[in-house]
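Need a sequence for this fold. Nothing fancy.
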């Protein structure tokens, strides 16, 4: 009995399965099963009471039917703009903030880190509604006029050309703390000997950043890019709270998340009848797209020790 017990506790044994089993069960129930069931649902049409197998017809209609294809391509275009703004604003600012926060001469580092990260802790819907009020001309016209900035009192969320950009910038403001923290950790893991050798050789601050920090941060840049990519192409809450589910104004803020909800769950105007199969097809294509791009980025940014 003693030998049997010791064998079960040996690293080569299977006792470790009991430690991961609870998390595995939760993952299968709430992540894996809904994912595969969504893929299965994309092969059907109709409601749950009258469902018919149609194979890949939903996918074909999504790209060939004028009604669905126009909605999908518009949402995909808006989502790409939304993502690019985050990459160019949120992640670049996060890299800049991290470089400043890891500077040897930086004082009050912890306080500034807390200030930058604080918006991440706010509820997305609450943040969206507050910014919607702050950007409303009803609230801003008088104060801005009083300080000579009446030109800024515009209906930013009511114009096709500015609504998505403004919402994207608000989202960047809220989430810039995530890449900042990741870049700070990455920079802190770089050996101080490299910095000291560069200073001895007469390298400037920017030369150290471009020649030492950025190349060694390549894996972190890849992780940040993947997180931004996946989260932005699944964005939903911020759009609903600052615009609406219909992509106001005139579809300018319609993303893949709101399009999926409107078609698969809520029912697309003017019919107003949900089409779960078409919604599942949109979700499946988005999943495949995210998986492929994430794999490519991960492979491209992976470096040897």
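Here you go.
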């Amino acid at each position: 009995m003693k030998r049997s017990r010791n064998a079960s506790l040996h690293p080569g044994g299977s006792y470790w399965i009991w430690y991961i089993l609870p998390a595995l069960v939760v993952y299968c129930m709430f992540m894996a099963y809904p994912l595969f069931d969504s893929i299965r649902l994309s092969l059907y049409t109709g409601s749950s009471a009258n469902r018919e197998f149609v194979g890949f017809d939903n996918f074909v209609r999504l790209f060939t039917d004028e009604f669905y294809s126009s909605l999908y391509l518009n949402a995909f275009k808006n989502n790409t703009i939304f993502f690019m703004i985050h990459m160019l604003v949120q992640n670049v600012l996060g890299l800049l903030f991290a470089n400043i926060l890891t500077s040897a001469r930086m004082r009050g580092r912890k306080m500034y880190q807390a200030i930058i990260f604080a918006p991440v802790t706010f509820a997305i819907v609450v943040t969206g509604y507050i910014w919607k009020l702050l950007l409303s001309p009803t609230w801003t016209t008088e104060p801005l006029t009083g300080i000579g900035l009446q030109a800024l009192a515009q209906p930013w969320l009511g114009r096709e050309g500015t609504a998505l950009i403004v919402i994207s910038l608000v989202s960047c403001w809220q989430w810039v703390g995530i890449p900042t923290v990741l870049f700070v950790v990455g920079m802190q893991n770089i050996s101080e000997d490299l910095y000291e050798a560069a200073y001895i050789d007469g390298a400037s601050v920017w030369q150290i950043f471009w020649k030492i920090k950025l190349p060694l941060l390549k894996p972190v840049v890849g992780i940040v890019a993947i997180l931004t990519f996946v989260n932005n192409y699944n964005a939903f809450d911020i759009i609903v709270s600052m615009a609406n589910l219909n992509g106001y104004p005139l579809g300018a803020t319609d993303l893949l998340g709101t399009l999926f909800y409107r078609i698969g769950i809520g029912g697309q105007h003017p019919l107003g009848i949900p089409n779960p199969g078409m919604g599942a097809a949109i979700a499946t294509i988005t999943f495949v797209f995210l998986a492929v791009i994430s794999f490519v980025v991960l492979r491209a940014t992976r470096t040897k020790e």
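For context: Residues 44-48+59-301 form a domain with the MetI-like fold fold (CATH 1.10.3720.10).
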